[in-house]
Design brief:
Length: 137
Amino acid sequence: MEECVFCKIVSKKLPAFILFENESAIAFLNIRPYTKGHSLVIPKKHHRWIWDIPKEEAAQFFELCQKVAKHLQKTSGNELVYSLTVGEEVPHAHFHIIPNDAVSKFPKALDDVIDEVAFSPELHELAGVLDELIEKV
Ligand SMILES: [Zn+2]
């Protein structure tokens, strides 16, 4: 889908801090994080809802969700990692993986990277561009 923001991230037409990817899915840091490390996992092919992902792709999609959640458990030092799907903000299936920031213990180096990436002026500017794109959809 040409104008879809997440499809543009998959095709690398829009920048993103990509954490992991496999044949069917990609995981990246949310530019509007609820907490440090808040990540999104999306299928590489455009599907409106998570429930629309064909089973051939769904296994790899959920495998990547699990990989991100386990990674965030390990790096945040906190077993409590929330998972959430709503799907109203961007009409491309996506799953939020959100560490509980109240007790996160990110190593200092990772903490700095997350601050630099998730709270940089460039990404806030990009967030404005994304808002405009989303309003057009
Ligand atoms: Zn899309």
